[in-house]
Design a protein that fits this description.
321 residues, 5-stranded mixed beta sheet, binds ligand MTE, 14 strands
Length: 321
Amino acid sequence: MLFKFLKSSHVKSGEITPENIYLGRREFIQDTARIGAGVAAVATLGLTPSPAQAEVRALDNIIRDGAFGTDEKQTSYRAVTEYNNFYEFGTDKSDPARNAHSLRPRPWTVKIDGHVDNPGDYDIDDLIKPHMLQERVYRMRCVEAWSMVIPWVGIPLAQIIKKLGPTSQAKYVRFETLVDQKQMPGQSRRVIKWPYAEGLRMDEAMNPLTLMAVGLYGKELPNQNGAPMRLVVPWKYGFKGIKSIVRISFVDRMPSNSWKRLAPHEYGFYANVNPEVDHPRWTQANERRIGEFRRRKTLMFNGYSEEVAHMYSGMNLKKYF
Ligand code: MTE
């Protein structure tokens, strides 16, 4: 993400990821395609050695029923876990993998409050039981116009919400990330007003596609991907996918979200993937799938119209971007 009113000294080159920068500097994610000869892509291993990745546990008994799945090629584990946005650990794409070892994902308490029958401080392991875990392979689309296909592991957010029992006054759900400079050194810079916060309308939160993820590729979430739990909303731009969540509040008004608060003319609350609504500084009509050479056309709702379009019928999606 890039916001233009930052001083250039505060912004590192990885934030906006124009093609030439990330192709030049992120060699490890290249697949080279020989278009003329029509020869399939050859994956090239990068010049940059992988930073030592912290060990993550394999998760057992995951339900793999293929629900909402895609058979598109999955993005490599390495790219998924080394090319990240997580400003609590730095603003360059490679910072989270390098710096997130200081995050301690256990013990982890999540505060539940607002208009809900069962508020309180919950241990994550009481909120999400291992036998509930499902795999969901989702297309993900970042507002910066790159995309990935990721096999997430988690549980539908609706299952958590039903247990918590929101009251009829709960119209939106607000999420908050941990604030702790010792664990999240990037919080010493006020690039964002901490905590990182996001929100969903109640029907969006209850949609069967919406996942609370605790893992990917059959393993626990690496810290840089938002351990121990993060939101995954595949029809919206990636910034809705708030990481390392410590608070879930049921509220009656639309909550503010970090990127909208920072640049309201550039980032909205809904953030639905929409090829017809360009970002003020770049097109959203196409995207680069990480690992591919040729750009792809971006699909409405990131290809999930069947599951989600009904929630926005009658809304002007140019106004509510
Ligand atoms: N959550 C927090 N707490 N802090 C962040 O900086 N970045 C967001 C989102 N969640 C972010 C966050 C953005 S801009 C994107 S694109 C996704 O995380 C990236 O998720 P990934 O690194 O797992 O691909």
